[in-house]
Amino acid sequence: xxxxxxxxxxxxxxxxxxxxxxxxxxxxxGTIADYLTAAGIDLREVRIVPDEEDRIVxxxxxxxxxYTYLFTTGGIGPTHDDITADCVAKxxxxxxxxDERARAMLLQRHKPEDLNEARLRMxxxxxxxxxxxxxxxxxxxxxxxxxMVMAGVPAIMQAMLxxxxxxLTGGTAMRSVTIEAKGIPEGNYAGDLGEIAKRHAAVSIGxxxxxxxxxxxxxxxxxxxxxxxxxxxxxxxxxxVARLSA
Length: 246
What we know:
It is built from nine helices and eleven strands. The strands form three sheets. It has a six-stranded mixed sheet, with helices on both faces. A three-stranded antiparallel sheet has the order 9-11-10, with helices on one face. The radius of gyration is 22 Å and the shape is elongated. The chain starts with 7 loop residues before the first strand and ends with a helix. It has helices spanning 17-21, 28-38, 53-66, 84-92, 100-106, 117-120, 154-164, 186-199, 227-245; strands at 8-15, 41-49, 69-73, 96-98, 124-126, 130-132, 141-144, 147-150, 175-180, 204-212, 215-224. It is an alpha/beta fold.
């Protein structure tokens, strides 16, 4: 792992042909990113892969080794193309079968005679994994090592994230301030802003243009885990904006 006690990192692996085709618009990345930011966990990478075993296994192994946590969404339903659980088991080199704890969860929603082969696919859990509760449809996600495997349906994913969140170790929360650079073109302050960024290595500074009903406007966002460093950089950026606005 590349994390230090003050820096906890994460990646998201989105799994599904429907995302890549555009048929389904992802709503989970932003939700997870917001959650992680609040927990002091840096989201460093997001990948989207198709429902192909080799691609999923490769991505799981690469991302779980690189970051403190890996969150996957999608591919744990009852249909033939829901292969995430099998792929994660393969990535970890463990077996997979119907888990009696997961079966018991499904029985909270389905009659025993309705637990057909398709529904039981949702109870197949890699050996050694802990379950992630799903209060909405009962079919659980699971955690194995540093990998959290969650549903793709946004409401269910959110419920699983809420369930697994308390088990995560967070870092020092990132703080940020936004300075409005209204009416100032980016080109007018880009050079000076770059120099400010060089002087404040513990701070991340970004410029974000946006279109509003009143026209084009720019926002400069200053982020840091160090309050003193944040304040110092903020003061320089505000002084730059004030000078250019005069």
